[in-house]
Amino acid sequence: MPADPVQFPQLTVVNLAAEGAASTSAYRNIVVNRVNESCLRLSAFEGDYPWHLHPGSDELFVVVDGRLAIDLANGTTFLLGPWEMLTIPAGTVHRTRALPRAVNLTVEHLDAGTTFVEAPV
């Protein structure tokens, strides 16, 4: 599966706060920039994102606005507020939930695959 397109090339100044605020839809997830084999994503969303995992990439979340819940399949939930971060190891089944809206930055491999799974019971 090809990587998502990079929105801004290197040597471009990007106002991340403005990018986050510009999203008025219920879901926006873009690759802002590439750093070596990884990328910086900006996500602004409402509601729940489906259960999934990334088989070959860790995923680092940094919340910049709102509150974000990250649920793990084992029943653990992490609650993050602005400027808090958490790294999810590769292969870990998880989902994110905006409470009620969240803007976060994510660092992962540029070609990180996403495998969607059934909700744990």
Number of domains: 1
What is the CATH class name?
Mainly Beta
Shape: globular
Within CATH, the superfamily carries the name Jelly Rolls
Give the radius of gyration.
14 Å
CATH topology: Jelly Rolls
Report the end-to-end length measured between terminal Cα atoms.
29 Å
Q: What portion of residues belong to β-strands?
A: over 45%
- Per DSSP E runs of 2 or more residues, the count of β-strands stands at 8
- The poorly predicted ranges are none
Topology as a string of helices (H) and strands (E): HEEEEEEEE
Mean pLDDT across residues: 95
Tell me the CATH architecture. Answer: Sandwich
Helix percent band:
under 10%
Provide the structure class: mainly beta
* Main pleated sheet: 6 strands, antiparallel
Number of helices: 1
Description:
This protein has 121 residues and is mainly beta. It has a single domain (16-116), classed as Jelly Rolls (Sandwich), CATH 2.60.120. 6% of the residues lie in helices and 51% in strands. The protein contains one helix and eight strands, in the order H-E-E-E-E-E-E-E-E. It has one helix at 16-22, and strands at residues 27-35, 38-48, 52-53, 59-72, 77-80, 85-88, 94-109, 115-116. The strands form two sheets. Strands 1, 2, 4, 5, 6 and 7 form a six-stranded antiparallel beta sheet that branches. The longest helix has 7 residues, at 16-22. It is globular and about 45 Å long. The mean pLDDT is 95.
